[in-house]
C-alpha cells in the first residue's frame, strides 16, 4: 500500500503493547486500511509493535513488526503516531514523554498514568504542539472523554456519576442475582475472565478512582489526581447489605461520583464507593460488564452514555477513533484541545460532602430503643427520611416501636437519612456502635440517585 | 472586557436568530464570558444579533446589538464566528455560505438545511479552510454528532436507531398513557407548547427524516439527503394500534433507523416511521420530550446516548460546545474534520429493506380462515413468528383455529412476521385486504428492536 505511486506518504504508527487491546488495534489497522486512508486523507501503517516477549503466538501479526525495544521504536524518526496500551506508570510514562518530546502524537488508554501524572503529559504535548488523546482510558467504547472535553465545553457541568468498572459491576450483579457472597462472586468473575488473578485494582476501587479523577478533571477544568479521590472498594459489601438493598427495592453499585459542592466558591468532590441506587434509577439497570455515565449540566440537563465498558473490541474502537482524529489533525497541521485546568478548584474532603446514608442496625427489642437511636442522629444534626423496624426475635414479626409489644429479643432498624455532611453521618454511625441498645451495625451504605 | 489591556483581541460572534435558542446563546455568551475566555484562550463577544423584528421585548439583550440586516452582519469584517439558529432553508443557506465564503467559522442547528444541501455547505467550508459544526442539529443537548464524526470514526458503524423527535414522542406517550386519540394528543401537545400550531414537520416525520439523513451521512460516510429517507409520520397511528401494542407488551415510537443492508456491496437504508418496540428495549422507556440514540458498530458493540432532545437550554448547550470548539480551532489556526462522504454508498429503497411486520386483522370466524391468511403470507415468502387468534364475536372467548368451534361471527388475528423484504410484507398486506375472509386490516406496523 505504501508503495502505490498515487498515495501520499503514510503516517506511521508505533504500537506499544500487543495484548487484548493492542492486537485488536493491530488487526484493525490492517483490515480497515483503505477506510482509514479515506477518512484521514493519508494511509496509516504500523511501523512496529513493542512487546515484552517475542516468542509468543500472535495470530495475524507480522513477526517482523515486533520488537522488545519500546524506546527505540518510539524514537524512530519515521514514527508519527504512538499508541500506548501497555498500562501502568512505567515504562509507559517515559515512552509517552519521549514520543511527545519528539513531536509524535500519542493515543493512550492509560487511566492510571493520566490520573497520577496527567499534568506532566499534557504539558509535554502542549510544548511540542502535538496531541494527547485518551478516549479509551474511561468506559471503554463509550464516547465520554470527547463529550466532556468538547461537546459540553460551553456548558457548566455540575455532576458526573457513573458505573465505570465492569469487574465490580459483574461481581455485585452476581451477589444480587445469585445470593453469592463477595468471595464467591469474585471467584466466578475470575473463572470467567472478568476479574484478574490479583483483583485489587478493581475490587478496591483503584481503577474506578483513576477514571473518576480523569472525568472530574475534564468536567471541572481542574487537576484532580487519583490520590484526591475518596475511595472505598466493594470487598466489605456483605450478603446482609445486598439483602437490605433488595428489601428496599434498590441495588448496590460501585459508583464514581464527581460533583461541585455548593460552597460560595464551589469545590470539587470526587469519590468512589459502593452505594444503594433505587431500582427505578437508570444506573440500576446497568448490568454485567456494561458501563454507564450520567452527566448533569446547567444548560443541557441530564445526559446518559451507555455501552460496553471494557474488552478488546470496544477499547480498540475508542483507540481507533482517537487515532483517526490525531492523524487528521496531523494531515491538517492542527492539534486538538489541550489540558483545561484554569478553574483550579479545591478538592473537598469526603467529610464535607453532602450525602445520605442507609443504616441497618440490630437493636435490643426494648421500649425506647428507637428514641435513643433517633436522638443519636439528631445530636449530629442528621434528620431521618425513613425508619423501619423489623422484629428479628423468636416471633420475627414486623413490629413498629409504638404498635407492638417489645419481645425482649432483638429487632432490626432500617434507617435512611436525609442529606447531611458525610462527617456528621459517619460520626453518627460511630456513636451508634457504642450505644448499649445497639447490638450490631449490620449495614452502612451511602444512598445515591434517590 | 474587550478593552482590558491584558486580554488578547476578542473573537467576535454574529448571532443569527434570537428565539428560544438564540436568546439563550446570547445570555450564555455574557454570563459565562470569563469561563469561555479561559477555555478558548481568547475572549469571545457578541458582534451583533440578526432578528426579524427590532421592536420585540428581549430581556437581557442589549438593543444596540440587534439588526434586521443579517447579511450585513455576516459580512462585517470583524466577525470571526457565525451562529445560525434561524432554521429553514433561506435565508439561512445564503447567510451561511456568505459567512464561510469570507472564512468565518459557522455553528448551526439547522437540520433541514444540512439534510437538504449539506454538501454545498461542507464544500464551502473546506474551500475556505474553516469550520462548519452542527451538534445542535440532532437530538438537542445529546452529544451524537461528535461521537459519530470523531469518536467512532475508526470503527464500522452498522446501525443508528433513535428517537429524535420529542413532539411525536410526547404525543405517542399521551396516546399510550391516557388512551387519547392522535388528534386529542396533538391538541394537548400544542396546548403545552410541545407542538407547533402547524405540526406538519413533526407529526409527518420531516424533522426526524432530516435528522436521520444527517446521522446516516456521518455513520456511513455517504451523502444522504432528506429526500433519500423513507418517511411515514404518526398521523395514521390509531387507538387500535396503541391498544394492540399494549396487549403485546410493546410501545409505539417514531423511530429513525439507519442501517447497512447485507448485500455483498452494502447499501444504506434510512427510514423514519412508527414502529412497535418491545417494552424491554431501552428505547421503550424514553418518554416525553427526551431523545435517545442507539449506535451499533463492529468493534464498539451497542452504545446508547440519552438526554433532552430539544428546548432552549439543551440546544444552546450544544451550540456553545461547538462555539468553543471552533473558537479554539481559530486560536490554534486549525480546523476540525470536514465532510467524509468517500464511501458514497447507494441508498436502498424501502422495499429492499429487511423488516418485520405486526398485522392485526378482523376475519370471518370460520374454519380455515387461518389457513388462507397463512397461505397469503407464504405465497410472498414471508414466514410467521407468532399468530394469535382472539374471538371478538358474541362469545368473545379467546379461540384458536384448531381448539375451538368457530362462532360464525368475526375473530381477530394478531400476527408478527419474521424478517422479510419490506416489499414482500407490504404486498402481503395488500393481498390480505382483498381476501373475502378478511373483514378489515385493523393495524399494520413494523416491529423493531425485538
From TrEMBL, chains A, B:
Catalyzes the conversion of L-aspartate-beta-semialdehyde (L-Asa) to L-homoserine (L-Hse), the third step in the biosynthesis of threonine and methionine from aspartate. PANTHER family: HOMOSERINE DEHYDROGENASE. One of its GO terms (biological process) is methionine biosynthetic process. It catalyses: L-homoserine + NADP(+) = L-aspartate 4-semialdehyde + NADPH + H(+); L-homoserine + NAD(+) = L-aspartate 4-semialdehyde + NADH + H(+). L-homoserine binds at residue 196. Its EC number is 1.1.1.3. The active site is at residue 211. NADPH binds at residue 111. This is Homoserine dehydrogenase. Keywords: Amino-acid biosynthesis, Metal-binding, Methionine biosynthesis, NAD, NADP, Oxidoreductase, Sodium, Threonine biosynthesis. Residues 358-446 form the ACT domain. NADP(+) binds at residues 16-23. Pathway: Amino-acid biosynthesis; L-methionine biosynthesis via de novo pathway; L-homoserine from L-aspartate: step 3/3; Amino-acid biosynthesis; L-threonine biosynthesis; L-threonine from L-aspartate: step 3/5. The lineage of its organism: Bacteria, Bacillati, Actinomycetota, Actinomycetes, Propionibacteriales. Belongs to the homoserine dehydrogenase family. One of its GO terms (molecular function) is homoserine dehydrogenase activity. Its cofactor is a metal cation.
